[in-house]
Amino acid sequence: MTHEETVTMIVEEMRSLPGAMLPILHAIQDRLGYVPKEAVPIVAKGLNVSRAEVHGVLTYYHHFRQDPPALHMLHICRAESCQAVGGDALAEHAKNALGCDFHGISGDGSFSLEPVYCLGLCASSPAIMLDGEVHARMDSEKLDSLLEEGK
Amino acid sequence: MKVFVPGDSGSLALGAEKVARAVSERGIDPVRNGSRGLYWLEPLLEIETDEGRIAFGPVSEKDVESILELKSAHPLYLGRTEEIRYLKNQERLTFSRIGITDPLSLEDYVSHGGFSGLDKALKMSGQEIVQEVLESGLRGRGGAAFPTGIKWKTVKDAVSERKYVVCNADEGDSGTYSDRMVMEGDPFMLIEGMTIAALAVGASNGYIYVRSEYPHAYSTLVKAIGILDKSGYLGKSVLDSGKPFHLEARRAAGSYVCGEETAMLESIEGKRGIVRAKPPLPAISGLFGMPTAINNVISFSSVPFILSNGAQAYKDYGMGRSRGTLPIQLAGNIKRGGLIEKAFGITLNELIFEYGGGTASNRPVKAAQVGGPLGAYIPPSLFDTPLDYEAFVKIGGTLGHGGIVVFDDTADMMKQARYAMEFCAIESCGKCTPCRIGSTRGMEVIDRMKQGEKMEGLLRDLCETMLSGSLCAMGGMTPYPVLSALDHFPEDFV
Ligand SMILES: Cc1cc2nc3c(=O)[nH]c(=O)nc-3n(C[C@H](O)[C@H](O)[C@H](O)COP(=O)(O)O)c2cc1C
Ligand code: SF4
Ligand code: FES
Q: CA within 20 to 30 Å of B404's CA: A3, A36, B136, B226, which one?
């Protein structure tokens, strides 16, 4: 199925929901890993709003991506509880290990690195999420072995 | 043998899945309960015995075989779960089932007192339900502490063909996780509370707006709603009462300001999460322009107890105008991080040192940030402050959603102040200048102070402008962490 077909199918299925915009964008990203450019006019038409409106929503929310992610997605918590127990050092370590900054893709192309502001795991900070799985009481060594498994 | 291994994300993050698998491999299907909230002991494995449940923790998969064999002779044996001091001294009115039951077992829920509040509510008028909640003294647990009963009365009295109940499950405050524990550990309780609210105000439809950072909570809620739809608790006619309540969980998309109630409504409607000017109040004109009762997860979840046991039973806990209990969350650099539900009035000293055991790093405590990223940094000299909404306002702080993040003496308060400004700059919805521009200026000013420039006056002026010129608490309270850092830790700014 092309991206256009996938998006059209999702829009058809969900457009009658009240406030369908976010559920549709989520469904697209769940399926494709990001919301491609081609999706914008299809969503706009389906919801009877302007392309600018869809684009505005898409870019407003941190969660939505407009570019394809790497195979693996690493979220590192940057918020206060994790800061209090070495979260900054962990983030620096991740950047060095992956050879990229936040919002970037690792040198070998296998990891996307994203910040997240609290995962609700603050009793066991620092915390990360790798491909939707959560890990707490993290340190550089544990992170390295998780990244190694991912490669 | 009945064995329990938590399945909430807090435990999964510490390896509970591997522990559960190790139990299964030995021919026992473990119950995947929520967490008791003793996170320094997670994964906590429990075994049911004639004397009650006994606990082991923190357990890794390699311990499982010997635990099942040796039981109380095992080195990780903690005794009877209920007798663990941290848990024993709590007042768990809202968290009474969490960690005990299977979150998605309707049978467990009902046999542990679930739906007794709804049963009562079904025999009452909307006015009577509102009155009960009003008398309990319950105030919103999402941060603003507005009396829940008054809000419900406004929605009830509004005349409209359609009304909504919306649960704010955005839980954006760092250092907080009580909403998550409820959604993952006792979702039926939240839904029961929302259903009671719907009966009270006359709403037929509801939404739970769940942050996208909580995929586990979202999927548990979707399952829970499905179960209750099928068994007649939700849908066209709640328990054959003739009153409809259709409920749906919606995913947020990673914007902190969408926790602000009007930004949340915009987001559910499918727009950018920009804060609306008030009035109109959402209680009069909320979701899709209809009267809407918006509450936090813990506010709704407190209601079944109140209906079931009566307003007085709830009101008997607490101090001053802060009635009932607060699920407090210990976080950051803390030896025993976890959930403590206690009546208002307990002090930070008791929480951080007696429950929490001080810092995990074994270094002196320097500060605690209470109430999330918009909360003040409080020095140990003020740790005798009781947890009470008014007492916290008096010391220039806020209780917020009840999160306490502890820092040791290596923390740099200038860095924390800069982060507060940075977070505001990242998350500002952009509607007001003091918030949008002021936060970026704030970062720059602090950067220059770091270079040795004397700019405290300018930073304070900037905070003043944000305090007075912001539409919502994002810009209006970002000065709290900044000013408290300046006031209590001036030595970090030279
Ligand atoms: C920037 C900002 C973020 C907020 N985030 C949340 C949140 O994540 N969860 C929440 O329940 N309330 C949050 N609130 C408070 C809500 O606006 C609102 O007061 C609350 O949901 C009402 O429910 P309650 O009365 O039960 O507390 C936030 C407010 C602001 C200004
Ligand atoms: S204070 Fe900030 S977040 Fe709140 S409405 Fe104004 S710009 Fe938006
Ligand atoms: S602050 Fe990092 S998990 Fe909450």
A: B136
Model pLDDT, residue A151: 72
- Are A78 and A45 contained in the same domain? no
What is the domain range of residue A108?
72-150
Quote ipTM for the complex.
Answer: 0.98
Mean pLDDT, residues B304-326:
98
B474 CB near ligand 2 (under 6 Å): yes
Average pLDDT (B351-371) is 98
Fold classification of B320-408 is Ubiquitin-like (UB roll) (3.10.20)
Of all residues in chain A, the percent with pLDDT exceeding 70 is: 100
Helix axis angle for B433-450 and B456-469, nearest 10°, is 160
Quote the CA–CA distance of B303 and B197 in Å, as a whole number.
Answer: 8
Residue B494: what pLDDT?
Answer: 85
- Tell me the nearest-neighbour CA distance from B135 into chain A, angstroms: 32
**How many angstroms separate the CA atoms of B376 and B477, rounded?**
9
Tell me what the mean pLDDT of segment A31-39 comes to: 97
- Name the minimum distance, in Å, from the CA of A85 to any CA of chain B: 6
Domain boundaries, chain B: 3-88, 106-315, 320-408, 413-493
Contact A124 B268 (CB under 8 A): no
Averaged pLDDT for residues B44-50: 97
Find the CB nearest A122 among B215, B331, B411: B331
Q: Is the CB of B374 under 6 A from ligand 2?
A: no
pLDDT (0 to 100) of residue A63: 97
The CATH code of the domain that includes A144 is 3.40.30.10
Q: A133 and B12: CB-CB below 8 Å?
A: yes
Q: At A150, is the pLDDT very low, low, confident or very high (cuts 50, 70, 90)?
A: confident
Q: Give the three-state DSSP class for A13.
A: helix
- Distance (Å) from CA B437 to ligand 2 centroid: 11
- Say yes or no for a CB contact (<8 Å) between B251 and A22: yes
